[in-house]
Amino acid sequence: LVIDNRDDFLDFLEKLLDNGYKDMTLNYIENVMPHFWANDRFIKLQEKLIGFKSEIKT
Question: Keywords, A to Z (predicted)?
Fold first, then answer.
């Protein structure tokens, strides 16, 4: 997978999460954290993923 645009990459991550690929999304997030840590969309994506993980536990 080659994506050379930050917004396209974030779109890709959002679509992964929206389609139920939580573990794959988490893997990508963990790997790109140093490059996106201050990006608002990235932060919202992390929060959304955390929300999904909390739903699973309850």
Answer: Kinase, Transferase
DSSP character at residue 2 = -
Q: In the predicted model, what is the mean pLDDT of the chain?
A: 89
Q: pTM value? A: 0.80
- CA dihedral in degrees (26, 51, 3, 32; nearest 10)? -50
Contact yes or no for 48/17 (Cβ under 8 A)? yes
> What is the C-alpha radius of gyration for the chain, rounded to an integer number of angstroms?
11
Report the sign of the C-alpha dihedral through residues 14, 50, 35, 42, in that order. positive
Looking at this protein, which amino acid is placed at residue 50? Answer: I
Is residue 24 within 8 A of residue 16, CB to CB? The reply is yes
